[in-house]
Amino acid sequence: MAASEFPDLPRFPAGFELAEALTVASQQLHETPTRHNTLRTAVRLAVHLMPGAEHAGISEIERGNKFRTLAWTDDVVRSAEARHGGREPHRHWDELWHSPVVRMTDSENDDGWDVLSALGLRSALSLRLRADRRRLTVLTAYARKPGAFDEDATRIGRLFTAHVSIALESATVREQLTEAMHTRDLIGQATGILMERQGIDAAAAFESLVRASQRENVKLRDLARRIVGAHNST
């Protein structure tokens, strides 16, 4: 990845430079309009900021061995993580249920990481972004050099992922509020259509909408969207 992608950020910052770089990175993360864009920006920033990192991905691991990649810097990461999708998560990822950081020093000397070594990825640093009882969200940085991630890289990685976690939470809340407003508008439009069609007041129209939703076992917003769509197509 070209260093010029983030011209305001020093490559692999340290000292006072690090504090300034994390501030700029945090601003860029919070400027993303959606959770998906936050994830994509985060993996690119990880490669720029974390010493030793050449590639990065963000994955979601669910109990029951479900694994999917949410964002990646390139096809090498996508291929590496996709190949784990049909397998049980590696024990190193299992450790992230109990530890915020896991390092893999050399894939060629570590049983179970043959997928990485086959792609020329020798080192990995996994950092937990979010966790609950059912699901982990993990940022993993990769390098072609063995032993690429030392204590400094881990420290910077943990500082960076703290900013990513906050930005993700903020983006999630924004999306939920946007969806709530959109849902409210849809339900309002559907209620208005029923009032006009059936000659009833707003309360009766809304009650009719709720009953239909329960009867058809359809979410209220989906039923409202269907009514509005049918009305607009006539």
TrEMBL record:
Domain ANTAR: 167-228
InterPro entries: ANTAR, GAF, GAF-like_dom_sf, GAF_ANTAR, WH-like_DNA-bd_sf
Superkingdom, natural source: Bacteria
Keyword annotations from UniProtKB, A to Z: Transcription, Transcription regulation
Record's protein name: ANTAR domain-containing protein
Taxonomic lineage from the root: Bacteria, Bacillati, Actinomycetota, Actinomycetes, Kitasatosporales
